[in-house]
Automatic annotation (TrEMBL), chain A:
Protein origin, superkingdom: Bacteria
Cell compartments where the protein resides: Cytoplasm
Lineage: Bacteria, Pseudomonadati, Pseudomonadota, Alphaproteobacteria, Hyphomonadales
Protein name: Homoserine O-acetyltransferase
Active site per UniProt: 152, 318, 351
InterPro entries: AB_hydrolase_1 (IPR000073), AB_hydrolase_fold (IPR029058), HAT_MetX-like (IPR008220)
């Protein structure tokens, strides 16, 4: 795909929200389009609906290949017939988040004046993303969700759903996430945003109108973020100080080391499938996320006497959203009197472990969903 | 995924002391065998707390609500009276601060059931006297038991924490005797393990 081609949206399923969407920043968006994908079938009373929330650079193609990018499904280990999120039993839906770039309204979409929003797009929050999802679910004629499940930024949405609409979610599964973006999280994403905005091809956010893409800046943003998604142990195991296609260092700034070559590949393969302005907006939404700020810093008060059943997962070597951040969520839920399960999986795969093969995690998730389905009568 | 497991007699005895449909917290729930039994035979609202990631994962795969956490630090989070029964099955002796854990349980639930190895058993007393060795299957420090107490010690500790012993059952050779509230000295002499049913005074 050429560098500056917008996604071919004809291959995407899109629903336009019937009502304008009010945003936390005070602005309103009209004719919001939500791109989505689904697997399985709803039951008669539509009580078996699971919403999958994707991470920063994910999309709605959780369980089937993306027809636009050709990339494979991102969660095929967990969603499918007979798997933990069993599509023979549940109706599974995933949407592209508000502000995203895979068919849902975002900064690359056209504003009412017919030109791309660019940085004229309002700054959005995780709360806005969930409000958009709630309007989308309602437009499909679904009253409530059996479960809302997501890792990383998807986990923030799973928490936000439970906070915003406790009567509309039976269970919430936040995975490898945080209820509050830390200073370190904000710092890493700020590096990424600055890299994008420092690229002359960013054109003050108007690159689409000028036929350009800030690919170098976006690639650097991805490289910086990617470091936080893998553990030091995994980098050492995979690359250590291994050299790339050479016997000795070249006394130059070529990619001498395998780890450099790997990061450059991660950066370059990212720019073809992601919009730079979307990256700015979605990382900003994560930075603004602090659930406890709604109750004077007491997260437990946000969930006081909640009817939602929770299942929280973390991974021992994750330093992006470390076990402690997830344990903090769990501790607040205990104090709130919520029914909560929590498991920290021993893994050396870092933050990305939530997408990878971890049998204990998959079986525990399956056990949680099965027992919840029994309680729900599905 | 469901496989037949033999039910441990001490688990069965504990289950018989738990009211139908009660809210139960099992501290140190391991792979969830006792909680599973309580759910199926007593229809309890079952929750577990377990330190080990591996066994907590097995309990969750069974569909149990389990928090992987440390009783020594996490119990203080639970609101007062959030459960009707709290259980410490073969777990209190592995804790770093057993008195504090027991005290927290007395706050969280009006009833506490505790089972543990009884170091008052006559043969254990003899081991110490004759061999000068702490009674343990192997080396005492590898056994994981940090609190080698007798039944009488535990009853006294519970009383100090505001928990009265309403019934106690001996376990000998894997068999559980009847719950009763007298003959404690004899029980302390003859029981390999004991199960205490405590209630807040």
């Amino acid at each position: 795909m050429p560098d500056n081609a917008p996604p071919q949206t004809s291959a995407l399923r899109v629903l336009t929200l019937p009502e304008p969407l009010k945003l936390d920043c005070g602005e309103t968006l009209d004719h919001v389009e939500i791109a989505y994908e689904s697997w399985g079938e709803p039951n008669a009373d539509r009580s078996n609906v699971i919403l999958i929330c994707h991470a920063l650079t994910g999309d709605q193609f959780a369980a089937s290949p993306n027809p636009v990018t050709g990339r494979p499904a991102w969660w095929p280990r967990v969603i499918g017939p007979g798997l933990a999120i069993d599509t023979d039993q549940y109706f599974v839906i995933a949407t592209n988040v508000l502000g995203g770039c895979m068919g849902t309204t975002g900064p690359a979409s056209n504003a009412p004046d017919g030109k791309p929003y660019g940085t004229r797009f309002p700054v959005i929050t995780i709360g806005d993303m969930v409000r958009a999802q709630r309007a989308f679910i309602a437009a499909l004629g679904i009253d409530s969700l059996f479960s809302v499940i997501g890792g990383s930024m998807g986990g923030m949405q799973a928490l936000e759903w439970a906070a915003q609409a406790p009567g509309q979610v039976f269970t919430s599964v936040p995975i490898a996430t945080s209820a509050r973006h830390s200073a370190q999280n904000i710092a890493f994403y700020e590096v990424g945003r600055q890299a994008i905005m420092a690229d002359p091809d960013w054109c003050e956010g108007n690159y689409l109108a000028q036929g350009k893409r800030p690919s170098r800046g976006l690639a650097i943003a991805r490289m910086a973020a990617h470091i936080t998604y893998v553990s030091e142990g995994a980098l050492k195991r995979k690359f250590d100080r291994g050299l790339q296609d050479r016997e000795k260092t070249s006394f130059s700034f070529d990619a001498d080391f395998q780890v450099e070559s790997y990061l450059r590949y991660q950066g370059h393969s990212f720019v073809d499938r992601f919009d730079a302005n979307s990256y700015l907006y979605v990382t900003r939404a994560m930075d603004y996320f602090d659930l406890s700020s709604r109750s004077e810093g007491r997260l437990a008060d946000v969930f006081r006497d909640t009817p939602v059943r929770f299942c929280v997962f973390s991974f021992s070597s994750d330093w992006h959203y470390p076990p402690e951040a997830n344990r903090e969520i769990t501790r607040a839920l205990i104090a709130a009197g919520a029914e909560v399960s929590y498991l920290d999986i021993q893994s050396d795969k870092g933050h990305d472990a939530f997408l990878l093969e971890e049998p204990i995690y998959e079986r525990a998730l399956e056990g949680f969903l099965s027992s919840s389905a029994e309680l729900r009568g599905i | 995924m469901v496989e037949q497991r033999t039910v441990r007699p001490d688990h069965e005895a504990i289950a018989r002391r738990v009211r139908q449909g009660a809210r139960v917290l099992d501290v140190g729930c391991g792979d969830g065998a006792l909680l599973d039994l309580l759910k199926s035979t007593r229809s309890v609202d079952a929750r577990g707390l377990e330190l080990s990631s591996e066994t907590a994962g097995i309990a969750m795969a069974r569909g149990l609500s389990v928090i992987q956490g440390d009783a020594d630090s996490d119990l203080e989070l639970f609101p007062d009276d959030s459960f009707e029964v709290a259980i410490l099955s073969q777990a209190v002796q592995q804790m770093r601060r057993p008195a504090r854990v027991l005290g927290e349980l007395a706050r969280i639930a009006p009833e506490v059931i505790v089972s543990f190895r009884n170091y008052g058993l006559w043969s254990r007393r003899l081991t110490l006297i004759r061999q000068g060795r702490m009674p343990a299957p192997g080396l005492a420090h590898e056994d994981g038991v940090l609190l080698p107490v007798t039944a009488l010690d535990m009853i006294e500790l519970a009383a100090r924490l505001g928990l009265a012993c309403v019934a106690v059952a001996p376990v000998r050779g894997g068999e559980v005797g009847a719950f009763r509230n007298k003959g404690l000295k004899r029980l302390n002499w003859g029981a390999d393990e004991v199960i205490l049913h405590l209630k807040r005074i």
